[in-house]
Amino acid sequence: MINPFGVKYSGFRAPYFSIDERSLWALDILKEEGFEYDSSVFAGDAKRTGIPGYDPHIQKGANGLLEFPINTIKVLNFDFGVGGGYFRLLPYNHFKKKFSKILDDRHSIFYIHPWEFDVNQPKVSGINRRIKFTHYVNLHSTEKKVAQLLSDFECTTVSDILNNK
User: Fold this and answer.
1) Could you tell me if 82 and 140 lie in one domain?
2) Residues 6 or more apart from 155 whose CB is under 8 A from it?
3) Which distant-in-sequence residues (6+ apart) come within 8 Å of 3 by Cβ?
4) Largest Cα–Cα distance in the chain?
5) Are 46 and 54 in contact (CB under 8 A)?
6) Which of 2, 69, 110, 121 is deepest in the core (most CB within 10 A)?
7) pLDDT digits (tens, 9 = 90+) for 102-117
8) Which residues in the chain belong to E strands, given as ranges?
9) Do 64 and 77 fall within a single domain?
């Protein structure tokens, strides 16, 4: 897909990993629009989205679109994604141990939002306590934890992974 700035985008990720069993039809539209891969499926149960039991490996759909699902790690009985608020919530060494196990078996996307580095972002009032917690928890440690992650793991682009598959 080419945007007005002339940049070719080959991948897509829906907000909140919102492609689940009810919206798999959207993958056909992404393929029609020229995307080569999608990373919108949360391979687990995130309560508001996700597909429990979804194969966490990169896979080609019937329409030819590659799905690079967001991998999850089990913490107690909960599926945590490998990034974002989940990453900020967990102690780094615990995350590192669980993430290493994933990488022993397959590639994985790690994600972080730019706003998660901004410890001085405005605090929004009147929001649900759970949302407030997941949005603001451990923002002060994001930069240090990401720096450690980049030191501990070899990173590359999704394009490089898919081109060498």
Assistant:
1) yes
2) 110
3) 9
4) 47
5) no
6) 69
7) 999 999 999 999 999 9
8) 11-12, 37-38, 59-60, 66-67, 72-75, 78-81
9) no
